[in-house]
Amino acid sequence: MPVRDESRARLAIESEGIFKMLVACIQMEPIIGEKATNRARSIDFIAAAADRGAELVVLPELANTGYVFKDRAEALGMSEEIPVGETTNIWADIAAQHNLVVVAGIAERDGATLFNSAVVVGPSGYIGRFRKVHLWGDEKKIFRPGDLGFPVFETPVGRLAVAICYDGWFPETYRAVAFQGADILCVPTNWVPMPGQPPNRQAMANTLTMAGAHSNGIFIACADRVGVERGQQFEGQSLIVNRLGWPVAGPASRDREEILVADIEVRGSSRRAVGDDNDVLQDRRPEVYAGLANTSSSLGALDGSPYNRSFP
C-alpha cells in the first residue's frame, strides 16, 4: 500500500487489528458506447487518486460503457466476460501498478446472459465480481438479476462488499453484508432524480446510504456519475460515510467530475456499536420479525405481482 506520513502510527494500530486507509470515489461522466475513451479516462482518475494516497478506488456503475442502452442488442455488443475481458485486465493492471484495490461497474456477458456487474481487482489481479441484485427501470429489459447474492471479499484493504445503485434501496443489502463481517461496502452507482424530489434537497440515495451505514455499522463509499445521457439526467453527489452514518467526504457536486477522498478506520470487528450499551446487530430481536424476509413468497402468488416477472 502507499506509504503516507502517518505510516508509523498506522503500523502501531495494525498490530491491534485496526488500520486506517484512504478511500477514493471517482465521480466521472462516461460516454455511451465509447469504451476505449471511458477506460482511458478511468485510468487517469485512478492514477490521480493514487497520487493522493488512495488504497481503495471506486468507479461508477457501468463505468466503461455508459448506462442508457438503446436495447439489449446494444448492451450485448458492449459487454465483456469477467475476468478475461479487456476492461477487467486493464483495471487489474492499473491496480497492480499503483498497489491498490479497484471496484468498478461493467456490463458482464456470461454466455447469452447479461448482468449489470462490478469487478473487484487488486495488486495481485482479479479478486471477484458482484452482479446487481435489484434492477431499475429499463434494466429489466436488458439484464438478468444478479445470482451471486452479496459476497464479501477478503482484500488487502479489509473485508469488502459491493452493491450497485438500486440495491441501496433495500435494507437487506446492508444487513446481508454486515452479517458477513464486511468492513466497507462499495457502491458503483448511476443515481437519477426520484419522483417528487424537491430541487433543493440532496439525492434520496444520500439519506439511504447514511441510514444503511448507521443501522449496520459499516463504511459505505458511493461513486456516482454526472451528466445527461440520451436525455437521462444523473444526480452526482457521490459520498463516503463512516460506520455511524455521517459523511466523511461529500456529497460531491451534482454536475462536475471530481475525486472524493476520505481516511477511514477499519477495525475488523463484528461489533457494530452505536452507543456504549447498544449494538445494531447484537440488539436485534429475530423472534419478533423472523418471517419478514419470506413475505415476497406470498405476494408472488397474487395476480399481476411483479415477483412473477420474467427476465431476458
Spans where pLDDT lies below 50 across 5 or more residues: 1-15, 297-310
Helix content: 10-25%
Q: How much of the polypeptide forms β-strand, as a percent range?
A: 25-35%
Name given to the CATH homologous superfamily: Carbon-nitrogen hydrolase
How many DSSP-defined strands? 16
Outline of this structure?
The chain is of the alpha/beta class and 312 residues long. Helices cover 24% and strands 26% of the residues. The longest helix has 17 residues, at 35-51.
What order do the helices and strands come in, and which of them pair?
Elements: H1 7-14, E1 19-27, H2 35-51, E2 56-58, H3 72-78, H4 86-98, E3 101-110, E4 113-122, E5 125-131, E6 152-155, E7 158-162, H5 171-179, E8 184-188, H6 204-216, E9 219-223, E10 228-229, E11 232-233, E12 239-241, E13 247-249, E14 258-266, E15 273-275, E16 278-279, H7 286-289, H8 295-299
Parallel strand pairs: 1-2, 2-3, 7-8, 8-9
Antiparallel strand pairs: 1-14, 3-4, 4-5, 6-7, 9-12, 10-11, 12-13, 15-16
